[in-house]
Amino acid sequence: MQTTKFGRTGLHVSKLCLGTMTFGLQCDEATSVSILDASAQGGITFLDTADGYPLGGDLTTVGQSEEIVGRWLKGRRQRFIVATKCAAPMGPDPWDRGTSRKHVLDAIDGSLRRLGTDYVDLYQLHFHDPSVPLDEALEALDAVVRSGKARYVGVSNWPAYQVARALGRSELKNLVRIDSVQPRYNLLFRTVERELLPMCEEEGIAVIPYNPLAGGFLTGKHDRRAPPPPGRFTLGNAAKVYQGRYWNDQDFDGIEALRGVAAEAGVSLATLAVRWVLSNTAVTSPIVGASRPEQLADSLAAAEQGPLPADLKQRLDDLTHPWRMVDADR
Fold first, then answer.
1. Does residue 11 sit in helix, strand or coil?
2. What's the mean pLDDT in 96-116?
3. How far apart are the first and last CA of the chain?
């Protein structure tokens, strides 16, 4: 698999990143290991996890995804770029979450312990925490890098204006710079095209979008006339989130239109969807996931086939334009 430059940094990462939010709940450890093995065999050397994973779990399951990844990495740590995140609740106390200096400095130590490593390549704030001053969060990230516990830092689920503020504050105060963003982005959710992606291109910020397949919705396997099958759309506290995002008539109509284009192009809908994300010049490395190893095949095929021809990309851009400006809370 090809590698690509990570924003303006000197780091290079694989063109796909493996997301691990299914590990530990939707996937048991044996299945998770099979997914990691298949991913590595396919050339993916960039892994993304979070202390709050598995998605859909609770305080009894947090950290399990990192633990599974850590056990699998033993003896091969140097062959992989490892990213993790903090901010999700990790305990019952109010200081066990968010982006305060206390929590960030505690959280990185917990992640390193679970991952079985003394550093991560990328450490990210999982979401914007309005209760914490921006300078405090940035100073905590700066301390993590200066301590040698992370090489680069980034943010996930941050609006463009907060990323812009962070760039300005870090420059003013000589703090470590935000070098990546992790937004939700796919054919059915394109709001980041308005401000975030253009800003990232201009500032040299890496973009590692999650949900390129809309949690499996863009595989076309779901039926609006039937309840969601077991999986992302039914699992724990994530079910409500994913059903709210995609389980609606507008997006089912979009799937039907996209299915026809994929058939004409002679590729699966999933491969088409990932290739479309890869075709955006602002995108560095889409985060792909799976609940079974064979589900990676379509994404690996997308990386092998590369960006879409310009005319096909334009057709998809035009076709999904009604979804471009949807409310960011969807």
1. coil
2. 98
3. 33
Predicted TM-score (pTM) of the model is: 0.95
Beta pairing partners, 120:
150
β pairing state of 150-156 and 120-125: parallel
What domains sit in the chain, N to C, each tagged with a CATH number?
3-323 (3.20.20.100)
Task: Dump pLDDT digits (tens) for 164-199.
Answer: 999 999 999 999 999 999 999 999 999 999 999 999
Q: Give the separation between CA 307 and CA 278, rounded to whole angstroms.
A: 6
Inter-residue contact 213 to 219 (CB < 8 Å): yes
Q: Which region holds residue 114: left if phi is over 0, alpha if psi is between -120 and 50, else beta?
A: alpha
Runs of H (alpha helix) within 94-248: 101-115, 134-146, 160-173, 196-203, 238-246
For 251-283, what is each residue's pLDDT tens digit? 999 999 999 999 999 999 999 999 999 999 999
Q: Residue 299 and residue 263: Cα distance in Å, rounded? A: 17
The residues assigned a catalytic role are: 53
For residue 100, the one-letter residue type is: S
